From TrEMBL:
<dbReference type="GO" id="GO:0005737">
    <property type="term" value="C:cytoplasm"/>
</dbReference>
<dbReference type="InterPro" id="IPR048301">
    <property type="entry name" value="NucS_C"/>
</dbReference>
<protein>
    <recommendedName>
        <fullName>Endonuclease NucS</fullName>
        <ecNumber>3.1.-.-</ecNumber>
    </recommendedName>
</protein>
<feature type="domain" description="Endonuclease NucS C-terminal">
    <location>
        <begin position="122"/>
        <end position="242"/>
    </location>
</feature>
<dbReference type="InterPro" id="IPR002793">
    <property type="entry name" value="Endonuclease_NucS"/>
</dbReference>
<dbReference type="Pfam" id="PF01939">
    <property type="entry name" value="NucS_C"/>
</dbReference>
<dbReference type="Pfam" id="PF21003">
    <property type="entry name" value="NucS_N"/>
</dbReference>
<dbReference type="GO" id="GO:0000014">
    <property type="term" value="F:single-stranded DNA endodeoxyribonuclease activity"/>
</dbReference>
<dbReference type="InterPro" id="IPR011856">
    <property type="entry name" value="tRNA_endonuc-like_dom_sf"/>
</dbReference>
<feature type="domain" description="Endonuclease NucS N-terminal PH-like">
    <location>
        <begin position="2"/>
        <end position="60"/>
    </location>
</feature>
<dbReference type="GO" id="GO:0003677">
    <property type="term" value="F:DNA binding"/>
</dbReference>
<keyword id="KW-0963">Cytoplasm</keyword>
<dbReference type="InterPro" id="IPR048302">
    <property type="entry name" value="NucS_N"/>
</dbReference>
<keyword id="KW-0540">Nuclease</keyword>
<dbReference type="InterPro" id="IPR049173">
    <property type="entry name" value="NucS_N_sf"/>
</dbReference>
<comment type="function">
    <text>Cleaves both 3' and 5' ssDNA extremities of branched DNA structures.</text>
</comment>
<keyword id="KW-0238">DNA-binding</keyword>
Amino acid sequence: MRIIVADCSAEYSGRLTASLPPAKRVLLIKADSSLLIFSELGSYKPLNWMAAPCTLKEIEPEPAAEPAEAAGAGETAEPAPVKVLRVAADKSSDILDVKLYHVYSDAQYDLGEDPGLIKEGVEDHLQRYLAEQIERIGEGAKLVRREYPTAIGPVDIMATDANGEHVAIEIKRHGGIDGVEQLTRYCELLNRDPLLAPVHGIFAAQTITPQARVLAEDRGFTCLILDYDEMRGAESDELRLF
């Protein structure tokens, strides 16, 4: 990771055109040559950037224009850059030119291999907690197994309800229409097996979009909101079964 603090300007050309006037900013250059330009404000989002795959080159700045050519009456000429960073996209004609006028800091750091973001509340955790607390789908429910195999992929959880009828449960962090379609395919397939039918469906997620809820209920499925904090033992009384 290379971090540069400098007075700079930027010009982006190609599929779109954008420019940044001279100001003090932070440049992040990653090992894949991607470059991101940040200001003091603006949260996490860069002002401009070039994503990989791309190629970065340091090019010689063009000679400074003569004073008479550089500015008209009452205008201030742009200072001459001491360095120009050109980042070119490998798969398009996009180019990001960053002119550096004064460099306050230019440092490189080897960050090593990153293990990646470890998220709590992902589908595997939700699946495990719900399997251990299967009565959340209804009193008298019993777990058959997690990752119940089918010809089109495993159902997250197969259980039986208080009547002994099978229930296929599809679990998502954020439930959308695609998840409902997935549960539909599982239930249609499982209901062809006379040893399993009737198989009911439960669509379980931390959040479910209104469109997905309407579709799920129209297909006879139950929607279950999962409170991850409550399921792992934190205090909460927000579990809703619709």
